[in-house]
Design brief:
This protein is mainly alpha-helical. It has twelve helices and no strands. Helix 7 packs antiparallel against helix 8 and helix 7 packs parallel to helix 9.
Length: 247
């Protein structure tokens, strides 16, 4: 690996043409490190995804951070940028493994950055769609990850002073899943997108089963995502252990 070039690449700017976030001056290195922290929290010991978080956007040091809507509306541009960025990574001697886990933390970190620096944007259709994607993809990763992502989002909203109120617990999984399927429909039609596994439907069934078995009912009935909630169980302590802690 060309360490010097890779190091310089971390200084590339994100959000450079986003009118709501260009002032924040986030770098590629900051994004990669923040995504890696989230990935380590969700999947301790997965060194492959940690490296992918650090490396995946360094090719943008050559192309710049082209907004997602521009790439979505212009598939040929998206493929050209992907090719240029891949060549830049090759020149640096960088290889990483794309994965659903990487996609989740990549999008989640962007949403957290927006929440902290331009919170009103969360109400726009683009960011609402992004949130639906994040929640749905988290469900596909399984109940513990879905729960952990909700706590991460709740912490970010509270830190940013956002007074969003989460949906009531009962039926929450089903509503999130419906939003996810709606948000994902056009993505399956775009070239170069990583497909989603056939286990997705089984993931939501697993959530339903956990609900029926009572593993989630106490925790979700307490609605810990509400920003006015003084206490809520931290996912690293294990969600099942929270049963009986609240009235």
């Amino acid at each position: 690996m060309n360490t010097h070039d890779a190091y310089l690449a971390t200084m590339g700017r994100r959000w450079s043409v986003n009118p709501h976030l260009s002032h924040t001056r986030q770098t590629l290195g900051h994004h990669g490190a923040a995504a890696a922290i989230i990935a380590h929290a969700l999947w301790p010991g997965d060194a492959e995804v940690l490296w992918a978080c650090i490396a995946h956007d360094l090719g943008e040091s050559v192309t710049g951070d082209v907004p997602s809507p521009a790439k979505q509306d212009n598939p040929e541009l998206a493929l050209m940028l992907t090719s240029i960025e891949a060549a830049a990574l090759d020149a640096m001697g960088i290889r990483y493994q794309p994965s659903d886990r990487l996609d989740l933390v990549d999008r989640l970190e962007a949403y957290l950055w927006m929440t902290h620096h331009a919170a009103p944007q969360r109400l726009t259709p683009e960011w609402r769609k992004s949130l639906a994607w994040i929640e749905g993809m988290a469900i596909e990763q399984g109940v513990p990850v879905a729960n952990a992502v909700q706590v991460i989002l709740s912490d970010a909203r509270k830190s940013a002073g956002v007074a969003d109120v989460a949906p009531v617990a009962r039926g929450w999984w089903q509503r999130v899943w419906e939003r996810f399927k709606t948000a994902m429909t056009p993505l399956h039609e775009r070239p170069g997108q990583i497909g989603f596994s056939s286990t997705a439907e089984r993931s939501i069934e697993a959530c339903d089963q956990a609900w029926r078995e009572g593993a989630l009912s106490n925790w979700l009935d307490a609605n810990p995502y509400r920003p006015d909630s003084i206490e809520y169980p931290h996912w690293e302590d294990g969600f099942a252990s929270t049963k009986g802690e609240r009235a």
